[in-house]
Amino acid sequence: MLGSTARWPLAGVVRVAVAALSGLLLPLLAATTVQAGEDVRTMTRDGVERRFIVVDPSEAPGPKPLVIVLHGGGGNVDVMRRVGFEPIAQADNLLVVYPQGQGNGWRDGRGGKVLSDRSGEVDDVAFLTAIMDTLIAEGRADPKRIYVLGASNGGMMSLRMACDRAERLAGIVAIIALLPEDMEAACKPAEPVPMMLMVGTADRFVPFAGGPVAGFLNDERGGVVSYERTIAVLLAANDCVGEPATTALPDPFDDGVRTSRLDWKACAPRGQITVLRMEGAGHGWPGKPRPSTGRPIEAMRGTVSRDFDGAQVAWDFLRGQSRP
């Protein structure tokens, strides 16, 4: 359960800072400088000009695996470019796309005034699908190897894409995210799709036990169902049975965070589900902790897991997934 405003006397300061927290707890950067292998694109959807950056480090001929990386609420493409996918793209000849959410957020299936005010009535499922179609038509993206990955609000949007566009995806990864309440009954994937989740049991922003998202800020941000209910929906969607194989990851830091990997493999073809359950971890990209500033907001963010590199583990899961 999330704390109340009474527990946080600096709620006004916190409210101002929530965008940075929901944006993966990484420092915001100045506008990205365009470099070789980088293409800043726009398209008009729902009467709104939408922006996305295509990064192709090798610039080798396509089509290539396409990884669409989604920022968190209040974040932006510059934040996401720091999580580590571009070295992976260089090494493995990937096409990486960083879309910019309208109002710095995504319509991930939650209700709540904040999302409506921030993003309006744009159709983000259609926007992300249009990016796929554009890059496939240009011969740059392999339609059998399209992946969507995101964190926080972007992770919830990744789950929504699995629910609504499973037939287009080779796999998704949702980081520090759970299934929005309104998506629990609505999530009916057309077919199984490989999914990985990375969840912190002490996340105050996306509560492990379910409930309001950042609810202690007195803002209506909708809610998520619990980890258990999220997993139940995904297991049913992928026809998974039995118990997962469980492995404890190495714990090189004495920081109170321990990670277990759970793998469900007795599933429909292409139905594997993997969870990295970060015991004691809060709301941040795994492997990318921010130095402590000593501010009260650090206590709300919680401890960020340093046990593994979130980008590399995500790609290690996705790289073996392909549509028939």
Task: Describe this entry's structure for a reader.
With 324 residues, this protein is α/β, with parallel strands linked by helices. It has one domain: Rossmann fold (3-Layer(aba) Sandwich), CATH 3.40.50. It is built from nine helices and twelve strands. The chain has helices at 11-22, 77-80, 85-92, 113-119, 124-137, 153-164, 227-237, 296-301, 310-318, and strands spanning 38-45, 48-55, 64-70, 95-99, 141-151, 171-175, 195-200, 211-212, 223-224, 245-248, 258-264, 273-279. The strands form two sheets. Strands 1-2-4-3-5-6-7-12-11-10 form a ten-stranded mixed beta sheet, sandwiched between helices. Strands 8-9 form a two-stranded antiparallel ribbon. β5 (141-151), α6 (153-164) and β6 form a beta-alpha-beta unit. The radius of gyration is 18 Å and the shape is globular. It starts with 10 loop residues before the first helix and ends in a 6-residue tail after the last helix. Mean pLDDT is 86; it is low at 1-34.
